[in-house]
Amino acid sequence: MIMKKKDWNKVELLRQVRHDWLNKLQLIKGNLDLNKIDRTKEIIAEIVIEAQNETKLSNLNFPNLTLLLLTHNWEQHSFQIEYEVLDQIKCKGIDDQWLTDWVAMFFSKINHSVKPFGNNHLSVTIEPHEQGIRFFFDFCGTIEKKDSIQEFIEVPHHGVHIHQFNIKEQEFSLEVFFQQPT
C-alpha cells in the first residue's frame, strides 16, 4: 500500500475533527440509550485522555509533527497509531521539520513493511527533555519485511540515537533519542 500524505487545509481539518466528535457523541448516546452507564463512563474517560494527549502534543511546539500524528489515522495507511506525551517539558534546539521528516520516513518504512489491511497498531510514547526528545515506538501486527525496517534503523542519521531495537514477526519496539544536529 502506498502511503499518500494528504495536504490538509483548515476546512478539511475542521471537517474531520467535527466528524470524529460526532462519532464519539453517537457512541456515548448509543450506550446511554442501551443503559450501559459503565461503558459510557469508559468512553468519556477515553475521550478525556485522548484530548489531554492532543493538548500535550500541541504544547510541545512542533506543529509539523503534531499535524503528522493528529492526521495519520485519517489517511489510508497499513497501520493505525496512538500516542501519549509523558511530560510538558519544552525541548530546546530541536528543529520541527527535521524531527517530522525522520518520523514520516519511519512511518513510510513501516507502512511498506507490514501486511496491508492487517490489524497493525503502533503506539508512540513521547518523552520530551530539555536537551532533546525521546520516542518509544511499540508495534504489534504482521510484519512482512523485517529487513526493510532493520535497514532503516541501521542507517545513521545525525542527531538520531537508537538506544534499543527489537523486532520479531509480529512486533517490534524501538527507543530513539533525537538531539538537534550541530
Notes on the structure:
The protein has 182 residues and is an alpha+beta fold. Helix content is 46%, strand content 22%. The chain contains 5 helices and 5 strands, in the order αααβαββαββ. It has helices spanning 10-33, 37-59, 63-71, 96-113, 146-154; strands at 80-85, 121-129, 132-140, 160-167, 171-178. The chain has a 5-stranded mixed beta sheet with strand order 1-2-3-5-4. Helix 1 (10-33) packs antiparallel against helix 2 and helix 4 (96-113) runs antiparallel to helix 5. It is globular and about 55 Å long.
The number of distinct helices, counting runs of at least 4 residues, comes to 5
Rg value: 18 Å
Q: What is the rounded distance between the termini?
A: 36 Å
For the secondary structure, the number of strands is 5
Tell me about the largest β-sheet: 5 strands, mixed
What share of residues is helical?
40-55%
Q: State the shape.
A: globular
Taking strands numbered 1, 2, ... along the chain, how are they ordered across the largest sheet? 1-2-3-5-4
Give the oligomeric state. single chain
**What is the element string, with H for helices and E for strands?**
HHHEHEEHEE
Identify low-pLDDT runs.
none
Q: Provide the structure class.
A: alpha+beta
Share in β-strands: 15-25%
Give the mean pLDDT: 90
